[in-house]
Amino acid sequence: MQALRLALAQINSVVGDLAANSAAIVEWTVRAAHDGANVVVFPEMALTGYPVEDLALRPSFAAASVRALTELATALDKAGCGDRIVVVGYLDRDAEGSRNSAAVIVDGRVTTRYDKHSLPTYRVFDEARYFAPGSCLSIVAVNGVRLGVVVCEDIWQPGGSVPAYATAGVDMLLCLNASPFEQGKDEVRRSIARRRATEIGAPIAYVNVVGGQDELVFDGASFVVGPDGSTWGRSPQFVEHLLIVDVDAPAAPHPDAAEVPGWTIDRVTLPDAAVTGWQRAEPYLAEIASTEEQVWGALVTGLRDYVHKNGFRSVALGLSGGIDSAVVAAIAVDALGSDAVHAVSMPSTYSSDHSRTDAEEFASRTGIHFRVEPIADMVACYVDQLHLTGLAEENIQARCRGMVLMALSNTSGHLVLATGNKSELAVGYSTIYGDAVGGFAPIKDVPKSLVWDLARWRNKSAADRGDIPPIPESSIDKPPSAELRPGQLDTDSLPDYDELDAILFRYVDHDQGFVDIVAAGFDAAVVADILRKVDASEYKRRQYPIGTKVTSRAFGRDRRMPITNGWRDYAALDEV
Amino acid sequence: MQALRLALAQINSVVGDLAANSAAIVEWTVRAAHDGANVVVFPEMALTGYPVEDLALRPSFAAASVRALTELATALDKAGCGDRIVVVGYLDRDAEGSRNSAAVIVDGRVTTRYDKHSLPTYRVFDEARYFAPGSCLSIVAVNGVRLGVVVCEDIWQPGGSVPAYATAGVDMLLCLNASPFEQGKDEVRRSIARRRATEIGAPIAYVNVVGGQDELVFDGASFVVGPDGSTWGRSPQFVEHLLIVDVDAPAAPHPDAAEVPGWTIDRVTLPDAAVTGWQRAEPYLAEIASTEEQVWGALVTGLRDYVHKNGFRSVALGLSGGIDSAVVAAIAVDALGSDAVHAVSMPSTYSSDHSRTDAEEFASRTGIHFRVEPIADMVACYVDQLHLTGLAEENIQARCRGMVLMALSNTSGHLVLATGNKSELAVGYSTIYGDAVGGFAPIKDVPKSLVWDLARWRNKSAADRGDIPPIPESSIDKPPSAELRPGQLDTDSLPDYDELDAILFRYVDHDQGFVDIVAAGFDAAVVADILRKVDASEYKRRQYPIGTKVTSRAFGRDRRMPITNGWRDYAALDEV
Asked: Which residues bind deamido-NAD(+) (chains A, B) (predicted)?
């Protein structure tokens, strides 16, 4: 028999904007109440946004979060939702430090709260820096269903609060999350939740943040899984969404335990809630998208939110006619609309004819703003006065382009986009203060081989819909070149990108050593050369603009290498 | 009666360079042995350098560290130091993860090892990300003295391994450290060590790293304190140094405990060691320098090591005639010698006459390389082609200068120095890709008021020695201006720097909120304006070059704020 209607509110908070986030929580609760939900669950730190980073250490911000929570409870009551059970993540602070907390709000007040127990401190997470771990279980019983509250990492680590809840006695776990997107992560999340649901013999409702925050993008993809591994509902990725799931009274509930060693237990029994939706809600099961569609969604969402949340309305970029800038421009069109995209072709004396025509072709297919600013005069001014040749002359071209874009940004308020990809960034094939100029680098974390896949996927998906494919085929097919000297090609000094990306995947994403990579079948001299380039480029990468993270390990806060670093793994070259 | 001669080897390791660090450890051990030392103690992670950051997560690097440790033991024996007890920090790794470890080497092998127990995860430290905590005490007895080994944070936190050693029974603690410099830290360290020595009733020998590593600079200042709070010896700051201290047999040793709950104990009793220096060593007590001298030493060391450890031999910078670039140039002269410093005066149409004459005067006083490259033609090229005015025209001047410096760097291999100070960086008064250009920003963490203090101190210390003061008096005395438009002065849009720095100190270094700062007596409108500027500049600061950290909280890994951030503390302005 149906006991409860549950709503998972997958919302897009703005870090720090307590007023806007509160208003959104009220709005989504009203919507959920209208749909008959008794329990509305919001993501981890939905009230403050995630991650707040060092704001967590500012007492005035923690106090403001706690105050905003109290005001939220009042606002929910005033909005006519006082009879709904609202579970919301926020920042708390007590004598032991700041807390990554979840509050259960009902009848205009906080009835119980839970502090996250397992604090991830790896990859992009620094929670041991910010939060004190909790040791109290919060169990809310309503209509005969005992709901336990956990936060994100709590279900990833063995032990901790999940088995403690099972011992204490719960019929369902509500798990609040801020789990960033990366390729393949969606399936890993469902798999870990299924395992825990089976272990504790109770369903798990998993609600995730959606939206971009600096280099992170959260994909949502909230879901509910049963103890038998079945999926009771699943939200789409990259959009705000309300997932409605009806929950039955437990057939044979585990009894309550009087105590659980190492934990205190806060049990709250609420008055019976009316179940208004007597007809069982149809399970909503969003389709699972292809890798390219998921990554594209992440890149579009990451860029859109970075632009809008930072108060920009338009972007500018150099459109070279090559694949990277074309893909970045296509992402920008999908994120912001073509009228917000300002592309500049900046030919030099070394630019090929197709550079400009391919750029023009992209602009005419997509309707973005397009202008041509030749850089020959500017370059000549430096070359002549300073007598530049070689690398200095190559770099000055890229830098003149960067300055043109920044001047347009200063004049018209565009955010400049850097168009570099992960592969070239890894090996240092970018000019600092040149093509690395920009406030955001959309494909910073996309390996070159995936850039091509995305271009083909985006064109095909347009064609499938009967739309014009945005990216000129010759931008996809021509051999990549920086065009900083006559006849220059990327392959002059790099292996082909499939091989390069495979080596980078091992070295950068998986911390493999030189010997491991060579043992996997790659040529030792090629590996040593690439590793040398990666190690030498740490400084450039530190100064590169942030960009949306889509792989398992991105350059940025995710991978923190010393700049001054005498370690040369490939010194083992002699030993192979 | 003298039982042992102890040597604290305050050395300057290079992160990752296991071969060079091993060789240095052997060399300093030979020197200590020559001085009659029985026990030679090296700093925390002296073998790998500190901090190794994500290198700690690379299994191949941890394996190389362990292998290098074994080879070091052999090398020490071969160098005739097998009979010395050598304590050295290194990176270990086992099934639980990586370890911040200390090994005790004697007779060509590792006789016992200790894993750091307390792992700092705040400010610049991320050790919970990298290391598993240890729970084993390592006690080495020689000549009747029981030596316990701890690492850095172990003495900062109450509880942990220090009281466990006291219970187990030790006569002295050897504490290996990598404690970065900040103003006033030296005294705090001695005070915490004195407190712990008193608590456990045994002396503590504290050996610290010296030298620069990216944004960190380690000052050394190693010491030994007795249980009565007395100082038995103290090393100078910012130089490699061997501190020799003779240790008596304990008068009334605490008995050994059979066990200590929560800890395992590894006890090693070594054969008697010969005490060769029968005459007691004179206590060496380095003088404690003034704040300005300490900060200057940190800045010089930080720059020198960044330049040399990264393989550069010279630096280039724009010399504007103002105080900031003059101080940076003076630091560079002290760090690298005047022949390695290449200064460029880059006058624009808005530059005052004294800009160039003051720059020339600095160059003639110090003997650095000096050239003049007017930027008027370059600026005109952009202004004319792109029709620039206002902010875009101001910024293009700074950017043309940045490009000139980078072109010289590409041509001659100089490392470019950015000359911005902490105050202007905090409020966003710098041009990205303009005056922010450079590979290192020596005074990035020096507030403007301290920049003036340092200039006066440096000139006075030269005069006191009978040398020519390097910095022209008019560079110190003139009102600060960016000279990007006619008659522009910093005070047009900022309060005076003493007030600005006092507000920044509270907001940036101490995480105070708007209300707290206003309550301390500052004008609410001024505070709100400054906080708004700081919050708006997060993006620029992320792209700024690294620089030596000298205050309690620097922009960089020390302070990690979200870029996209809707929190506006000064929204409370209405409530005041």
From this structure: 395, 424, 540
Per-residue tokens: B194: 């004195």
Residue type, B415: L
Using 50, 70 and 90 to split pLDDT, how confident is the model at A277?
Answer: low
- What are the chain B neighbours of A61 within 8 Å (beta carbons)? 513, 567, 569
Tokens 């949340």 appear where? A309
Cα gap A405→A463, rounded to integer Å: 32
Please state, in angstroms and rounded to a whole number, the distance separating the CA atoms of residues A357 and B477: 56
Which residues of B319-435 form beta strands (DSSP E)? 341-345, 369-372, 415-416
Q: Say whether A318 counts as a known binding-site residue.
A: yes
Instruction: Give the DSSP letter of residue B249.
Output: P
Query: Hey, is B337 helix, strand or coil?
Result: coil
Q: Any known ligand binding at A438?
A: no
For residue B381, indicate whether it is catalytic.
Answer: no
Q: How far is CA A321 from CA A318, A328, A363, A366, in A?
A: 9, 12, 10, 14
Is A185 annotated to bind a ligand? Reply is yes
Residue-wise pLDDT tens digits, B165-175: 999 999 999 99
Please tell me whether residue B440 adopts helix, strand or coil conformation.
Answer: strand
- Average pLDDT of the segment spanning B55-64: 96
Residues 6+ apart with CB under 8 A from A177: A43, A44, A151, A152, A206, A207, A208, A209
Q: Using the beta-carbon criterion (under 8 Å), do B566 and A17 form an inter-chain contact? A: yes
A350 vs chain B: nearest CA distance in angstroms? Answer: 19
Residue of A nearest to B389 (CA): A411
pTM for the full predicted model: 0.97
- Structure confidence by residue, pLDDT tens digits, B405-448: 999 999 999 999 999 999 999 999 999 999 999 999 999 999 99
Helices A353-366/A323-336 angle, 10° precision: 20
B535 to A171, A212, B426, B467, B532: CA distances (angstroms): 45, 19, 9, 43, 5
A44 part of the active site? yes
Examine residue A486 and say whether the peptide bond preceding it is cis (omega within 30 degrees of 0).
Answer: no
Place of tokens 């074994």: B70
The b/e string for A92-129 (b: 16+ C-beta within 10 A; e otherwise) is: bbeeeebbbbbbbbbeeebbbbbbbbbbbbebbbbbbb
- A382 contacts on B by Cβ (under 8 Å): 378, 403-404, 407
Residue A57: its chain B contacts at CB < 8 A? 511
Out of A18, A513, A565, the one facing B16 most closely (by C-beta) is A565
Instruction: Please judge whether B563 and A214 are an interchain contact, meaning their C-beta atoms are less than 8 angstroms apart.
Output: yes
CB atoms within 10 A of CB A483: 20
**Closest-CA residue of chain A to B18:** A567
Q: Which among A386, A402, A515 has the least Cβ separation from residue B60? A: A515
Residue A270 pLDDT greater than 50, yes or no: yes
A94: enclosing H helix or E strand: strand A85-94
Closest CA to A522 of A492, A501, A505, A499: A499
B485 vs B120, more confident:
B120
Q: Which residues in A lie closer than 8 A to residue B507 (C-beta atoms)? A: none
Q: Distance between alpha carbon A450 and the CA centroid of its chain, in Å?
A: 17
Reference A15, options A41, A60, A54; nearest CA is: A54
Annotated binding residues of B, written as ranges, equal 122, 179, 185, 318-325, 395, 419, 424, 540
DSSP A15-47: TT-HHHHHHHHHHHHHHHHHTT-SEEE--TTTT
Specify whether the CB–CB gap between B441 and B544 falls below 8 A: yes
Quote the tokens at residue B532: 């708004």
> Could you give the CA distance from residue A175 to residue A150 in angstroms, rounded to a whole number?
5
- Interface contacts A/B by beta carbons within 8 Å: 225
Closest CA to B451 of B489, B497, B499, B415: B497
